[in-house]
Amino acid sequence: MDQLKQAVKAVYDQFDASHDFQHIERVLQNAEAILATEPNADHEIVRIAVLLHDVSDKKYTDTKDEENRLIDTLDLTEAKKRHIRDVIESVSFNGGNELPAKTIEAKIVRDADRLDAIGAIGIARTFAYGGAKGRKLYDDEEETRVNMTEEEYRTKNTASVTHFYEKLLLLKDLMTTEKGKQMAEERHKFMIIFLEQLKNEREGKA
Questions:
Q1: What pLDDT score does 150 carry?
Q2: Nearest Cα to 69, choosing from 57, 81, 87?
Q3: What's this model's pTM, rounded to 2 decimal places?
Q4: What angle do the packed helices 65-72 and 2-12 form, to 10 degrees?
Q5: CATH code, 42
Q6: Which of 37, 131, 147, 199 is the most exposed place for a label (fewest CB within 10 A)?
Q7: How many domains does the chain have?
Q8: At 33, is the pLDDT very low, low, confident or very high (cuts 50, 70, 90)?
Q9: Is the C-alpha dihedral spanning 97, 180, 162, 19 positive or negative?
Q10: Inter-residue contact 127 to 137 (CB < 8 Å)
Q11: CA 71, CA 118: separation in Å to the nearest integer?
């Protein structure tokens, strides 16, 4: 695990602050909290999948070469390697076109990652990514998309606040583990409060 952490850190250090190694550390922390309530889960699969889940993030790369290389260095059975790949594949939101999380390990990693997309950290990450991509803070003329393809989700340069309505505010109800659902509640409420305050300030009401 220590060697894998160092290897993936070298990858994530190339990404912006929204998907750096600190993100991975927080997702690991979330995963550990959920694992404590899921005794039947394979802890090794979960931890490795968390470390690797953003190595091939489509926002930063078009290939899975580095992900596959790192998985192939692991001293695991082919079945476990395939399981890790399946877990990683099921994590991404993809504009609502996500793959089903079929195993408890996939559900844990997905919830752990999505918990880091909401709440105070989620707010900070949204604007960090938006800043890195030159996005507007908000755009009152922009319509929230309800149904979109993965390509539409990834290619339109929407304002950061729009992203809350197209993804982040949806995540609470998409949690798959009981612990994930519990942890998401307070974070979701905080985003609502933030968006209300932001609206009041930009309209001169606060």
A1: 84
A2: 81
A3: 0.95
A4: 170
A5: 1.10.3210.50
A6: 147
A7: 1
A8: very high
A9: negative
A10: yes
A11: 29
